[in-house]
Design a protein that fits this description.
Layout lengths: L10 H13 L4 H12 L16 H4 L4 H14 L9
Helix pairs in contact: 1-2
C-alpha cells in the first residue's frame, strides 16, 4: 500500500475533515480514502444496506396510532411498584 502526505492543509480544512470523519464514525484516514474512491467513481459496494419488505404482507404493519398506544402501554408497564420493591 502506498502512503501519501498531504501538505498545505490549513487549520480550518483540517478541522472540517476531522468533524466529517467523526460524523461518519470513521478514522480520518478511512474517511479520506472513501472520499477519494467516491470522487473517482470507485466506491465500495455497501453490504447489508438493502431493507427488505418481503414478509410485510404476512405480519402487517402498525399504524402510527397503534404504535403510539403500544409505546404508551410499554412505558406504563416499566414503572416500578415501590410498595412491592422497598
Amino acid at each position: 500500500m502506498k502512503t501519501i502526505t498531504i501538505r498545505g492543509l490549513n487549520e480550518h480544512l483540517s478541522e472540517k475533515l476531522k468533524q466529517a470523519a467523526k460524523k461518519e464514525a470513521k478514522s480520518i484516514n478511512q474517511f479520506v480514502i472513501d472520499s477519494i474512491r467516491k470522487s473517482l467513481g470507485e466506491e465500495k459496494e455497501k453490504k447489508f444496506s438493502v431493507i427488505h419488505h418481503d414478509m410485510d404482507h404476512l405480519f402487517g404493519k402498525w399504524s402510527e396510532k397503534e404504535y403510539k398506544q403500544i409505546e404508551k402501554t410499554i412505558h406504563m408497564e416499566r414503572k416500578i411498584d415501590k410498595e412491592l420493591w422497598p
